[in-house]
Amino acid sequence: MRAISQDALGGPEVLKTVEVDRPTPGPTEVLVRVHAAGVNPTDWKTRTSGGLNRMEPPFVLGWDVSGVVEQVGLGTTIYQPGDEVFGMLRYPQGNGAYAEYVSAPARHFAPKPPNLDHTQAAAIPLAALTAWQALVDTAGLKEGQRVLVHAAAGGVGHFAVQIAKARGAYVIGTASAAKHELLRDLGADELVDYRSEDFAEVVRDVDVVVETIGGDYGQRSLRTLREGGTIVSLALGLMDAGLHARAAERGIRSAAMLVEPDHAAMKALAALAKAGKLRAVLAAVLPLADAAKAHELGESDRTTGKIVLSVRQ
Question: Is the distance from CB of 160 to CB of 135 less than 8 angstroms?
């Protein structure tokens, strides 16, 4: 099968098309014929450094998948060949989505919403699961609460806005002014242009902060939170080392999290998408062979939403 691999760590130029053996599904696994693969910032970070697992090349990048079940392993009951599914491979260990086939545990996938094509579905899993696990599982978001989402037009951010709104929250986002119209369309109630305003001076009485940037954003965000609020940091490698202690001093809960496969959450996201309450904003759709171009585009920091690779056109 075709896949995108690399023989060395480095820039986008190390990515190349190769022929590799098609995987075989083990017990409770499925083999999925990939139609589209989502691209995320963790992909190019792994390309350059080996990622959290410090992987050594060669390896195949990618965690977001949408496709069709080709084969089921021993003991798999929830899918049959021909079923359309989407999901996230185990993060960070289970990379390999930039390929024509992937094999993974069946419950890492959910049925693809019928109103989404594979390109739209492939943009959802990793980023939307991150937003769901931050808001719902970690922060315990409740109806009527106030949520501040940083980088609200980014991959995780634009899903966090929609998930929070679907759960009845008042949503505040930080983004450049050019992206405010899109974010209002996605459900944001209030927006701050970080280029012209200091969010820490204008936002108050927030219950939950989703912090995706790192640096001093965590510390400044504490000023926006009411006592008893929660800040969830997703920028683990860039997080202020003293954030947890400063949060505790102010009676604020702080948490740092990594995304993980979650069958129940994937089904919940699918339900939101089917109901028209969750959609991926697509910055670009490129063929699999143009993975290097996709990385160049993503690393430019000028995109809104998600980049997707089309594996079967």
Answer: yes
At residue 105, the 3 state secondary structure works out as strand
Alpha-carbon distances, residue 222 vs 67, 142, 170, 197, 245 (angstroms): 41, 19, 18, 17, 11
- CA torsion sign, 71 to 75 to 79 to 85? negative
Would you give the DSSP letter of residue 234?
Answer: -
**Cα–Cα distance between 30 and 53 in angstroms, integer?**
24
The tens-digit pLDDT sequence of the chain (313 residues) is 999 999 999 999 999 999 999 999 999 999 999 999 999 999 999 999 998 889 999 999 999 999 999 999 999 999 999 999 999 999 988 889 999 999 999 999 999 999 999 999 999 999 999 999 999 999 999 999 999 999 999 999 999 999 999 999 999 999 999 999 999 999 999 999 999 999 999 999 999 999 999 888 989 999 999 999 999 999 876 666 688 889 889 999 999 999 999 999 999 999 999 999 999 999 999 999 999 999 999 998 777 889 999 998 6
Inter-residue contact 231 to 257 (CB < 8 Å): no
What is the pTM (predicted TM-score) of this model? 0.95
Neighbours of 305 (CB within 10 A): 22
Contact 108, 28 (CB under 8 A): no
Count of other CB atoms within 10 angstroms of residue 9: 17
Cβ–Cβ < 8 Å for 160, 134: yes
State how far the Cα of 237 lies from the Cα of 281, in Å rounded to an integer. Answer: 26
State the chain's maximal CA–CA distance in angstroms: 57
Rounded to whole angstroms, the Cα distance separating 216 from 300 reads 22
Tokens of 260: 């993980």
**What backbone phi and psi angles, to 5 degrees, belong to 99?**
-160, 165
Q: Are 183 and 158 in contact (CB under 8 A)?
A: yes
